[in-house]
Design goal:
Distance between the termini of chain A: 36 Å
Oligomer: heterodimer
Helix content of chain A: 25-40%
Number of helices of chain A: 8
Strand order of the largest sheet of chain B: 2-1-5-7-9-11-13-15-17-19
Bound molecules: adenosine-5'-triphosphate, magnesium ion
Largest interface: A-B, 30 and 24 residues
Largest sheet of chain A: 6 strands, mixed
Number of domains of chain B: 1
Radius of gyration of chain A: 18 Å
Number of strands of chain B: 19
CATH topology of one domain in chain A: Rossmann fold
Number of helices of chain B: 7
CATH superfamily of one domain in chain A: P-loop containing nucleotide triphosphate hydrolases
Strand content of chain B: 35-45%
Helix content of chain B: 10-25%
CATH architecture of one domain in chain A: 3-Layer(aba) Sandwich
Strand content of chain A: 25-35%
Shape of chain B: globular
Structural class of chain A: alpha/beta
Chain lengths: ~260, ~400
């Protein structure tokens, strides 16, 4: 088995003083795609934000080793430069910052050197073709007026441009129509390989049919409650989370 | 000196002496202490020279004029179309007497403290005249410096665009960081005739120590386009008062403002448009960022007197606060005395959104650079209305300089 790109041990995270993650253990070998499923409010996004270093999420215990380094010791921008990427569940709109300027700035920052305008445009053209991202968006401002699906596609475009070592995709499939889902999956699969680890947070097996996971984890009430193979996702789709202690009503997947 | 010039100066000096002293209790002087700007005209000791200011250069300019401490100097005319005049203003009093006499003091009177002070004391300035139908493609720029050799300095600009003429004029104010206080008084009068187009930029880029009172007044003729762009970045205490007089129907007049206050800078912008003709448009749009313990005040007023129907007048001021301790005040005003007008006004003060900052940082962009993107993005709405492309780059640098932590001098 490859060395883990991400090794989470006993991670506890609180938001506004309330403990949400109660000791998460998760190891992801480099090159693997792991799915993370779990009912609403179980702490999936909390894990994603805490890993990315969002200041509102207080790590109260545990360790996270990323590519051999202490991830929790880094600022959010250092984490990105170290190769960590988070495709957000709800990407924010940043007024007045153009898509192109943003992409160039973040590329230069993560690479640690100025990319030439030519190479940049080449990479941009290739990746926007891959993700069928309309090039007329480049003059627009960051996520401003983007539809839900366009925002998600734009997240994966950024991932393709920045070439992270590891990416958390937080419900990238939610709100995507079938065609968009295929395009986004195609994009992720194109990036997939021995140098990319992935944690794919989702409520649905739909995306897992396009992006086949190596391992599936279930999060329940702030802990990893079960880990299994791809068949676990199908099991959850059929049975929901009742066996983990969820009430019948609230346990339908994606409720 | 021609007698009309001497008479105006004498009258202005008399007004200055006879006007009741400003106390700071007056409604329009509540926010910036009149004494800090030397509105009484009392002499002030020079702080002494502190190195040379960054004045830029004439590259890309149609004409270029540097007035050190406001002293008259000859302009450098690089490339001007026939008939266009760019001259030092005191020189133009005689060399172009009729033109200057017709317009000087026409938009800024001598019955206020600021107007009287400047009219009585100015030495050097910029005169621009563009004849009918002539377009000057490149900007004409005047730079007023404060070197520290004078305690009080004055600047004066008169721009006259005849029918259908077009020009871009920059008034730039620069100094090094000074060892003491210099008080600066400037006036710009912009006369824009029918169908003419003027973009006038006021770039307040002083170093520390400078206290500046600036009056800008424009008259927008029928179907003209007037842009007053005020960029306030430098100086300890700066008060800028742009007034747009919309005097012809069909005019499109905009007062655009961009500012970034830091340290304990104090900026006040008092921006007014007066619709003296029907069927015209004005827009006052001021946006700025604040950090450290700086303070800014925006007062805006749209005045539509009786007899100006079909006026469209808009006013917006938005302020972006980067940290606790900085404070912005916004006072949007309306005086509408005509029916059938479309007017709106809005003022807002907001904090930098932590989610914006996190999003950019999560893509590897360091905090300072992320804030720079956010501030520039915030100002983008105003920049979009400015034709002068180089302003973007200039602002980018100025914002970066303000956001980069200062290395303590050892
Ligand atoms: N800023 C916050 N303040 C208070 N509680 C919060 C905050 N953010 C998250 N929580 C709480 O933490 C818990 C976990 O939320 P989280 O967003 O991680 O769930 P999730 O598993 O991603 O759910 P979903 O499937 O709905 O996206 C929820 O109960 C939520 O209300
Ligand atoms: Mg979530």
């Amino acid at each position: 088995m490859a060395d883990p790109i991400l090794d989470i041990a006993g991670l506890k995270v609180a938001v506004d003083g309330k403990e949400i993650l109660k000791g998460v253990d998760l190891r992801i070998p480099q090159g693997e795609v792991h799915a993370l499923m779990g009912p609403n409010g179980s702490g999936k996004s909390t894990l994603a934000y805490a890993l990315a270093g969002h200041p509102r999420y207080d790590v109260t215990g545990g360790t996270v080793t990323f590519n051999g380094e202490d991830l929790l010791d880094m600022d959010p921008d250092e984490r990105a430069r170290a190769g960590f990427f988070l495709a957000m569940q709800y990407p924010v709109e940043v007024p007045g910052v153009s898509v192109l300027n943003f992409l160039r700035t973040s590329m230069n920052a993560t690479r640690g050197e100025e990319i030439s305008p030519r190479d940049f445009m080449k990479a941009f053209k290739e990746n926007s073709a891959l993700l069928e991202f309309d090039s007329s968006f480049t003059d627009r401002y960051l996520n401003e007026g983007f539809s839900g699906g366009e925002k998600k596609r734009h997240e994966i475009l950024q991932m393709a441009m920045l070439r992270p070592k590891f990416a958390v995709l937080d419900e990238t499939d939610s709100g995507l129509d079938v065609d968009a889902l295929k395009v986004v999956s195609k994009g992720v699969n194109a990036l997939r390989g021995p140098d990319l680890g992935c944690l794919l947070i989702t409520h649905y097996t739909r995306i897992l049919r396009y992006i086949a996971p190596d391992v599936v984890h279930v999060m329940f009430e702030g802990r990893i409650a079960r880990t299994g193979g791809p068949e676990l996702a199908d099991h959850l789709e059929e049975n929901g989370y009742v066996e983990f202690g969820a009430s019948e009503m609230a346990s339908a997947p994606g409720a | 000196m021609a007698s009309w010039v001497a008479e105006t100066r004498d009258e202005a000096e008399r007004n200055l002496a006879s006007l009741p002293a400003l106390t700071g209790q007056e409604e329009d002087w509540r926010f910036t202490k009149p004494a800090s700007l030397g509105m009484d005209g009392a002499p002030l000791d020079a702080p002494g020279p502190s190195g040379s200011p960054r004045v830029g250069d004439e590259a890309g300019r149609a004409a270029w004029l540097v007035l050190d401490d406001g002293r008259p100097a000859a302009p450098n005319v690089v490339d001007l179309p026939d008939g266009v005049i760019v001259a030092e203003l005191s020189d133009a009093l005689t060399a172009h007497e009729d033109l200057v006499r017709a317009h000087l003091n026409s938009l800024v009177g001598i019955d206020s403290h600021a107007g009287a002070l400047n009219a009585a004391r100015w030495d050097g300035g910029l005169f621009v005249y563009v004849p009918r139908g002539v377009h000057v493609e490149r900007p004409i720029e005047a730079v007023l410096t404060a070197t520290g050799a004078e305690g009080r300095i004055y600047g004066r600009t008169l721009v006259v665009l005849e029918e259908g003429a077009k020009a871009t004029v920059i008034d730039r104010y620069v100094s090094p960081d000074l060892g003491g206080t210099v008080q600066a008084s400037t006036v710009a009068e912009l006369v824009v005739a029918q169908g003419a187009e003027l973009e006038h930029m006021t770039s307040v880029s002083w170093g520390s120590g400078v206290h500046h009172h600036a009056t800008i007044a424009a008259a927008a003729g029928r179907d003209s386009k007037v842009r007053s762009v005020v960029v306030t970045l430098g100086g300890d205490v700066v008060r800028v008062e742009p007034t747009l007089r919309v005097v012809g129907p069909g005019a499109d007049a905009r007062a655009l403002g961009l500012f970034f206050a830091s340290d304990d800078q104090h900026f006040e912008h008092r921006v007014v448009s007066v619709h003296e003709a029907p069927d015209s448009y004005s827009n006052l749009l001021y946006k700025g960022a604040l950090k450290d313990t700086s303070r800014t005040v925006f007062y805006g007023n749209l005045i539509v007197p009786p007899g100006a129907p079909h006026t469209d007048a808009y006013q917006t001021n938005r302020n972006l606060i980067l940290n606790d301790g900085a404070s912005a005040e916004t006072i949007p005003f309306l005086e509408i005395e005509t029916a059938e007008v479309k007017c709106s006004h809005a003022g807002a003060v907001g904090r930098v959104d932590d989610e914006h900052l996190f999003y950019l940082r999560s893509r590897g962009v360091p905090e300072v650079e992320a804030k720079q993107l956010i501030v520039l993005g915030f100002l983008q709405e105003v920049l979009e209305m400015v034709a002068l492309e180089e302003l973007r780059e200039e602002l980018h640098e100025a914002i970066a300089a303000k956001l980069t932590p200062k290395v303590a001098a050892s």
